[in-house]
Specification:
Elements: E1 5-8, H1 10-23, H2 28-43, H3 53-63, E2 74-79, E3 82-90, H4 92-110, E4 112-120, H5 127-130, E5 138-144, E6 148-150, E7 160-161, E8 164-169, E9 177-182, H6 188-196, E10 206-207, E11 213-214, E12 226-227, H7 238-254, H8 261-265, E13 274-282, H9 289-304, H10 320-332, E14 334-337, H11 338-351
Parallel strand pairs: 3-4
Antiparallel strand pairs: 1-14, 2-3, 4-13, 5-8, 5-13, 6-7, 8-9, 10-11, 10-12
Helix pairs in contact: 1-2
Length: 358
C-alpha cells in the first residue's frame, strides 16, 4: 500500500492540539503542556506515541471517564530526595510533567530526586520526560508501565505490561545521549502504525497463544497476540527483557504503593491504570557540569571514529538520529499519515476548532 503523508507545522500542531484538549475539558495550561510533549515526540520521529493518539487514546479516554481532566494531584514524601504522587487518574502528560519537575526540584537540593507515581494514565514516550532534566544540567530517567499486551517466558498469551524506560544525559556541542526503549521488542504503537498503513509485521514481533508468529496486525486480537519481550527466546536472552520489564514494574508500581501488572491482570474489571517512575540526577553533585558535558562529547567522538564494518557509512548512538530528525522537522514540518490527518480533521469538526496546520 502506498501511504500518503502530509507535512504539518509543529507550532500550529501544538496550538491545534491545545485547543482540542481544552475543548475536551483539560485546563488550558495542562492542555498546552500535553500538546508540547506530544508534538515534541513527533518531532523526534516517534510516531507511535505522538498526535496519532490524540483522538483515539486521550480525547476518547476523557469522554469515557477513564481520564480525569481536572485531577486533584497529591504528593507525599518520606525523605528529602523522594516522593510518591497520586495522580487521581489525571492525564499522564500532566501528572508526568509534574512528577519530573518535582524530581528536578529535589535534585537541586539533595543531588538526586526520585518520584514514583500511581493512579494515572498513559503519558506518551518516556523520552519526553528523561530529556527535561538535561536542560538543567542533570541526567534524567523516566519509566512507565503499559497495557497488558506483552508475553512472558513460558506464559501463553499477553500477561505482562508494555513497560518502557528512557535515560538521557547532556553533552556540550553534540546532541544529548537518549536511550528510549520498550522492554518488549517493539512498542504497541508500532503495531498500530502497521495496522493503519496496511503493513505486515516483521517476523518475531508478535506471537499467538500457541507461540506461532503473527505478521498480520489485524490478527492480533482474534488470536490473543502477545508482543515478544526483548531477547525473544531463552537462548537469545529473553530473561534480560523479562527482568527489565519487572524492574520497571518494581520502580513504577511497587514503590508507588500500587498493584503490579500481574496483580492487575487478576482483577476482573480493574482498569490497567498506568504507574510511572522519574529520577533526576544533579551532575554538579559529582563534578562540574561543563566537565561532564565535554567528556560526553569526547566519548561520542570516539564512537563516531571507530573502524566501520563493510558497507557502513557512519556509527550513531542512541538519541543521535532523533536529534537530527527534530532539527529537520522544525524547519520542514512533521509528516503525518492520512489516517492521522483524518482523525485530526474529525476532532476539528467535533470541537469546532480551526484546522490550519500547513
Amino acid at each position: 500500500m502506498s501511504v500518503k503523508y502530509t507535512n504539518v507545522n509543529p507550532r500550529k500542531l501544538v496550538e491545534f492540539s491545545t485547543g482540542i484538549l481544552e475543548k475536551a475539558g483539560i485546563p488550558r495550561k495542562d492542555a498546552n503542556t500535553t500538546a508540547n510533549l506530544l508534538v515534541n515526540t513527533d518531532l523526534r520521529g516517534i510516531a507511535s506515541h505522538g498526535v496519532a493518539h490524540l483522538s483515539t487514546m486521550y480525547v476518547k479516554g476523557i469522554k469515557d471517564g477513564l481520564i480525569n481532566p481536572k485531577p486533584g494531584i497529591k504528593i507525599s514524601s518520606g525523605a528529602p530526595a523522594t516522593a510518591v504522587i497520586d495522580g487521581d487518574r489525571g492525564l499522564g502528560f500532566v501528572v508526568g510533567n509534574r512528577a519530573m519537575q518535582e524530581a528536578m526540584k529535589r535534585a537541586k537540593i539533595t543531588g538526586i530526586g526520585c518520584v514514583a507515581v500511581r493512579n494515572t494514565t498513559h503519558f506518551g514516550a518516556c523520552s519526553a520526560y528523561s530529556l527535561l532534566p538535561v536542560k538543567e544540567n542533570m541526567i534524567g530517567f523516566a519509566s512507565t508501565t503499559g497495557g497488558i499486551r506483552a508475553g512472558a517466558p513460558g506464559a501463553a498469551g499477553p500477561v505482562t505490561g508494555m513497560n518502557a524506560m528512557s535515560f538521557a544525559a547532556p553533552s556540550d556541542v553534540e546532541f544529548p545521549f537518549c536511550l528510549d526503549m520498550a522492554t518488549p521488542i517493539v512498542a504497541h504503537g508500532k503495531i498500530e502504525i502497521a495496522l493503519r498503513t496496511e503493513q505486515k509485521l516483521p517476523l518475531g514481533w508478535e506471537i499467538d497463544a500457541e507461540g506461532n508468529p503473527i505478521t498480520d496486525p489485524k490478527e492480533e486480537f482474534p488470536k490473543k497476540g502477545s508482543i515478544v519481550l526483548l531477547g525473544s527466546t531463552p537462548e537469545l536472552g529473553v530473561y534480560k527483557g523479562f527482568g527489565l520489564n519487572i524492574m520497571v514494574d518494581v520502580l513504577c508500581s511497587i514503590l508507588a504503593g500500587s498493584m503490579s501488572i500481574p496483580e492487575i491482570r487478576k482483577q476482573p474489571g480493574h482498569g490497567s491504570e498506568c504507574t510511572h517512575f522519574f529520577c533526576a540526577v544533579n551532575i554538579a553533585g559529582f563534578l562540574p557540569p561543563e566537565e561532564f558535558k565535554k567528556s560526553m562529547d569526547h566519548m561520542i567522538s570516539v564512537y563516531h571514529g571507530l573502524p566501520k564494518a563493510k558497507g557502513v557509512d557512519r556509527i550513531t548512538i542512541p538519541g543521535e538520529l532523533e536529534w537530527e530528525l527534530e532539527q529537520e522537522r522544525r524547519k520542514n514540518g512533521i509528516p503525518l499519515d492520512e489516517e492521522v490527518i483524518k482523525s485530526l480533521k474529525d476532532l476539528a469538526k467535533e470541537f469546532q476548532v480551526n484546522y490550519n496546520l500547513s
